[in-house]
Design a protein that fits this description.
heterotrimer; A alpha/beta (about 525); B mainly alpha (about 300); C mainly alpha (about 350); A: about 525 residues; alpha/beta; Rossmann fold; 2 domains; six-stranded mixed sheet; about 30% helix; about 25% strand; globular; C: about 350 residues; two-stranded antiparallel ribbon; 13 helices; 2 strands; about 70% helix; about 5% strand
Chain lengths: ~525, ~300, ~350
């Protein structure tokens, strides 16, 4: 059987930082081929090369048996290769039809023809779309449908889907993957980029595994897969997660009551949300991304206004306090988007570390800001948190994700912290950095800080939390105490949760049993 | 009094035409995601090139051609820097203004106050006799009518053609346009050139139709008013026409107030267009509703493999 | 055939950045030289003026120092505002207002004579800061684009000066559009005894030192760096963003006003019709050439002042229009922003 798509010994570096190091990949006609790997393994970069958007530094691209050198995505489309990127390539200000016209306008001439083709294709693949709707008004799942339908409309025979289920509920994901199976049955080569092992097992015919820019396993048969072996291949090493033995929490350190937050575009992101955290407690907030987590973090941090409700930190009402005032009371934030909310990439390590401490007078009295004092503090933080490849005057832009995150921790987890809001603190980090982050959070908890841990990674939440709340549609829809039962939390995340936490869970999730006693 | 109002209305399109043409040129630029603050400089270059060619060739249409060519050249310099070399568009645009001022200051003096054949108001006979609006609608120079035509053409191209769709995509999301196979850089260079030529035409309008000679600094900030006009017009050609007529009427009012013999201080009166522009910017900002924003990629250079994070 | 590919550098080193700057300046100067030669000026004459007279003769250097005084202040005004991402294109307007403020104090003999100059300087700074307060307020409260707002106010300020020098403030003794002269010595900056240099030079140097201290060694400076690098990060980490922007912008307006004071009280000794023309763009140019740093602005200010002096003498001896200087400045800035590309991006075979 000829391969539909073959990439051989592909290397690619971005300004000296290697993303792909002689990576290989081959997929056949009529199969669903999973490309598995952790964040940053190079999966997306490799497929972005296959679809003509990035040019490889070296290596061969073979499409349907012929070696190709693509000058751009238009050439890839002509050869039948189409990709649905994780960050959709849709123009938000355009209508669905205009977006479809942008890629398919040459294939289907005339508005009427185009509209008819759109409706027909949408029906055929079972993903209905509203042609007249403006993309910016659509949900993420709806946008994805538009992307897939329009890619299919191009007559694509090699379809690449980048993390298609990341933004979907389980049920939506099932529908999508069933559609994908149908396409493959018709002879299309479908490549599914993912980091979810169970998806590979359930929906793929074969799997290729990447790690750190290299291919570590090529074209394994999904039916005979050994899951632990696959996990080891993907992660590279297994580290023992830190033992999380919570002590009984102290008095309530933080509370949100009836919180309501509106986005800049007028839609409501958080609706009547409420919970509290005790001193020395980690409260895990689980949920599918985009259910109000980001806005909740920004509201607590003070960079997004609270429309209604109350936030209190200790005895103080901080609902409308300025960010600086909240920090003074002990609020610390580790945001999901480091480079938008925590670190200024163009400033050096010393400046970034000093940012929050200038007002305290730590770096000089009155109006003064002593560079030597800033550099000394930075050197100490670099040593304490084992930040690699950094000196006080290194621009933060040059640090890797893990080391940048350690820098955020070094700044935020200081002596004065009383409430730590950590949003996806390990996203995109390698295993070693993850362990360091978790250890630092546990240290802070043991020192008496209240911690709000928000994550889409249920394993992370269950391993660290003393209690777990589930956020869906901007509300806390369920709350759980240990021992945690993974399926129940998962159900709650997609919106049909049991109202009360299950006390007698038959089979607590293996390996994440948290010592009971955190709560009665 | 009636005569004065008819006269004022009749004088408005002359003042509006350069603002309209420049604003349309800027709309093309900005819809493609390029912020071109150099309109004032391009207008100066167009105005002088128009006078020079008209002076030597004896035909104002030669002036129009020269204005288009000269402003296209300067636009290409801007495009090379702002699009190809991805220089900061604000500073590059400002420099175009200084460049235009320097260039016209260097080559302009021999043509100062030169007598040239120019575009005169058309005489459409009876139509122009209609009370109040007759001359305003039917007694204008040909460049004003050309401006109306260009307005319709720009609107039609932007919203009814594939070229327009791709252009708007490049300005809203170059990533999406690129993935769809649109050549982002070529599109932007094209928009910069064509848009810049309209700014040059606007300058030629000032020198060949409105003033009918060359005076250094004659564009007098109209390029900047056009920049503000684009914001007022929310990047729509028809609203730009509306705004141009509004500002044109303010400009046309000034000499007519002075002509009434009232003792209004000249220099304070001359502040009117600038203060009115500022006022309109404030009103536009106050009336802004969600969704009415500038093209999302405005002033952001595009590089496909940009992986800064 | 391999096509050329382009990628952005994650970090631009000081060396790359300085190299691109120097390369850009040299390229711009080369184009300008070609322009001068095309205007029929002998190459020997160009070098005699630009190098020999301007930088190697005592009289030339003194003239450079005089020209550099307001230019450095205007450059600092541009740099300080840009550090917090505020495009102050209205330096010229604030300079006009500064000159008006200083002239007002002088014409109405406000305050005791011993305090007169200090009052004039204070009025100039206040007027400059007040003039920039309008666009600053509009941007902060309403999100009005400050580039256009500051620029439009240049025209308004210019017309306000014309209104004054042709009207209420016109010198009753003369038939020219300027005000009566300032009284010596209480309303004029003292000469330093080196050409026409005056005490304004010391003020400009002090301003450089002050801005250096403020931006490199003070808490406000650290805040300004943060706001300039990322306003969102600054806000989220508790930096008083609004206060920082207001302080930097007001300082920018005050520095521009001070430049107006320096020209009026140090060179012209009255308010004249054309006193502020051209300083706005030069201020931006100098801020860019100086990479928004105080010491860089000082160096760039002196170089641009050299261009002004050489240009004036070319004007005198070759009847070249003053616009030539503006054109050369534009060419140099074009060249510098273009050359930056080679520092920021890496071109490789791809």
């Amino acid at each position: 059987m000829t391969n539909a798509l073959e990439l051989a010994a592909i290397s690619k570096a971005f300004d000296g930082r290697v993303a792909l190091d002689r990576a290989d990949f081959a997929a056949r006609w009529g199969e669903v081929h999973a490309l598995l790997g952790e964040n940053g393994a190079g999966k997306s970069t490799l497929m972005t090369i296959a679809c003509g958007l990035y040019a490889p530094d070296s290596g061969d691209l073979v499409i349907d048996g012929s070696q190709r050198s693509l000058a751009g995505p238009a050439e890839a489309t002509a050869l039948g290769v189409g990709m649905v990127h994780q960050h959709f390539k849709l123009v938000p200000e355009f209508t669905v039809l205009e977006n479809v016209a942008l890629t398919c306008g040459r294939r289907y001439r005339g508005q009427a023809t185009l509209r008819r083709a759109l409706t027909e294709t949408a029906e055929k693949v079972g993903l209905p779309v509203a042609a007249g709707a403006r993309v910016r008004d659509l949900s993420v799942a709806e946008r994805q449908r538009v992307e897939i339908v329009r890619t299919v409309m191009l007559g694509v025979r090699i379809l690449i889907l980048d993390e298609p289920t990341a933004v979907l509920t389980d049920r939506e994901a099932e529908t999508l993957l069933a559609m994908v199976r149908g396409l493959a049955a018709d002879g299309t080569c479908v490549i599914l980029i993912t980091h979810k092992l169970h998806e590979v097992k359930a929906h793929a015919d074969r799997v290729t595994v990447m790690r750190a820019g290299r291919t570590v396993a090529r074209g394994l048969d999904a039916a005979t897969l050994d899951v632990p072996e696959l996990a080891r291949l993907m992660v590279g090493e297994t580290l023992v997660p830190p033992a999380a033995r919570p002590r009984p929490p102290g008095a309530t350190a933080f509370a949100a009551e009836g919180l309501r937050v509106r986005r800049a575009d007028g839609t409501t992101a958080v609706i009547g949300l409420g919970f509290s955290i005790g001193a020395g407690e980690i409260y895990g907030l689980a949920g599918v991304g985009g259910n109000g987590q980001t806005e909740l973090v920004q509201a607590i941090a003070g960079v997004m206004p609270v429309e209604a409700g109350r936030l209190s930190l200790g005895d103080a009402d901080i609902t409308h306090a300025a960010p600086a005032g909240r920090r003074k009371l002990g609020l610390r934030v580790i945001p999901a988007d480091r480079h938008r909310l925590a670190l200024a990439a163009d400033l050096d390590v010393a400046d970034n570390l000093a940012l929050t401490g200038l007002a305290s007078g730590r770096y000089g009295p009155a109006l003064w800001a002593s560079r030597p004092a800033m550099r000394r503090a930075a050197a100490a933080a670099i040593a304490d948190f084992d930040v690699r490849g950094a000196a006080p005057d290194t621009p933060v832009r040059l640090l890797s994700g893990g080391n940048a995150q350690k820098l955020v921790l070094a700044r935020e987890l200081d002596d004065g912290c009383r409430l730590i809001v950590a949003h996806s603190p390990t996203r995109g980090l390698d295993v070693r950095a993850c362990v360091a982050v978790h250890a630092a959070l546990i240290r802070a908890r043991d020192a008496g800080a209240a911690i709000l841990l928000i994550s889409e990674d249920l394993d992370e939440i269950m391993a660290l939390s003393g209690r777990i709340g589930v956020i869906a549609g901007g509300r806390i829809t369920a709350e759980f105490s240990p021992p945690f039962f993974r399926p129940a939390i998962g159900e709650a995340m997609v919106g049909h949760a049991p109202a009360a936490p299950r006390e007698e869970a038959p089979e607590p999730h293996v390996g994440v049993r948290v010592a009971a006693g955190g709560r009665p | 009094m009636d005569g004065m109002i008819a006269n004022w209305l009749a004088g408005t399109p002359t003042m509006a035409a350069p603002l309209l043409l420049a604003a349309l040129g800027l709309i093309i630029n900005e819809r493609a995601g390029v912020l071109n603050l150099g309109a004032e400089g391009l207008m100066m270059v167009g105005a002088l090139a128009g006078v020079m060619a008209t002076f030597h060739a004896g035909d104002p249409w030669a002036g129009v051609a020269a204005a288009l060519a000269a402003s296209a050249l300067v636009s290409l310099v801007f495009g090379l820097l702002a699009v190809v070399l991805r220089a900061n568009q604000v500073i590059t645009g400002l420099t175009v203004v200084a460049f235009g001022a320097g260039l016209t200051g260097l080559f302009g003096p021999p043509y100062s106050q030169a007598a040239i054949p120019s575009f005169r108001p058309l005489d459409l006979g009876l139509l122009a006799e209609i009370p109040y609006v007759g001359r305003a609608l039917f007694g204008q120079d040909v460049l004003f009518y050309l401006g109306l035509l260009v307005t319709a053409a720009v609107w039609w191209t932007l919203h009814r053609t594939r070229l327009g769709l791709c252009l708007r995509a490049v300005g809203e999301s170059p990533q999406a346009a690129d993935a769809a196979g649109v050549d982002v850089q070529a599109m932007r260079i094209g928009a910069v050139t064509v848009g810049g030529m309209l700014c040059g035409l606007a300058g030629a309008d000032v020198s060949l139709a409105a003033s009918q000679t060359w005076v250094e600094g004659m564009t007098g900030g109209r390029g900047w008013i056009a920049v503000a006009l684009v914001i007022f017009a929310r990047w729509s050609p028809w609203r730009a026409l509306l705004g141009a007529l509004l500002f044109g009427s303010i400009e046309a009012l000034i000499p007519r107030i002075q002509a009434t013999g009232t003792n209004a201080p000249t220099f304070l009166l001359k502040m009117l267009p600038y203060l009115a522009t500022l006022a309109v910017l404030v009103v536009t900002a106050l009336a802004r509703r969600p969704g009415q924003t500038a093209p999302q990629a405005l002033a952001l250079p595009y590089l496909r493999e940009d992986r800064r994070d | 055939m391999m096509a050329l590919a382009l990628s952005s550098r994650r970090h631009v080193t000081r060396l790359q950045s300085t190299g691109a700057l120097l390369g850009g300046v040299l390229f711009g100067l080369a184009i300008s030289l070609a322009l001068l030669l095309a205007q029929g000026i002998a190459i020997t004459a160009v070098f005699a003026e630009f190098v020999g007279f301007v930088f190697l003769s005592d009289a030339g250097l003194a003239s450079v120092a005089v020209e550099a005084t307001p230019l450095v202040l205007a450059g600092l005004a541009g740099a300080v505002a840009l550090k917090v991402r505020f495009w102050n294109i209205g330096i010229e307007g604030q300079l006009w207002l500064g000159a008006i403020g200083a002239t007002g104090v002088a014409l109405y003999d406000a305050g005791p004579e011993g305090m007169r100059l200090a009052l004039m300087a204070a009025a100039a700074m206040a007027a400059g800061a007040a003039w920039i307060a309008i666009p600053a307020l509009l941007r902060i409260r309403l999100g009005v684009n400050e580039i256009i707002a500051t620029l439009l106010l240049n025209y308004v300020a210019f017309l306000l000066v014309q209104h004054l020098v042709f009207g209420a403030w016109k010198d009753p003794q003369q038939n020219f559009p300027y005000t009566a002269g300032f009284d010596a010595p209480v309303e004029q900056l003292a000469r330093l005894g080196w050409g026409k240099t005056h005490a304004g030079l010391l003020i400009a140097l002090a301003a450089v030192a002050l801005v250096w201290l403020l931006t490199e060694r003070s808490r406000l400076g650290a805040y300004m760096r943060a706001v300039g690098a990322s306003p969102e990060v600054a806000r989220a980490t508790g930096v008083p963003v609004l206060l920082t922007v207001v302080a930097a912008v007001a300082l920018s307006g005050a520095l521009a006003g001070l430049a107006g004071f320096s020209v009026a009280a140090g060179e012209e000794h009255r308010l004249t019709q054309h006193l502020g023309l051209g300083y706005g763009f030069s201020g931006i140019l100098i801020a860019f050439l100086g990479r928004f740093r105080a010491l860089g602005v000082l160096v760039a200010g002196v170089l641009v002042a050299g261009l002004y002096v050489a240009g004036k003498s070319l004007q005198q001896f070759y009847q070249l229009p003053a616009a030539l200087i503006e054109l050369i400045q534009a060419i140099i800035l074009f060249s510098v922003v273009g050359a930056d590309f080679f520092a920021r991006y890496r071109i490789h075979r791809g």
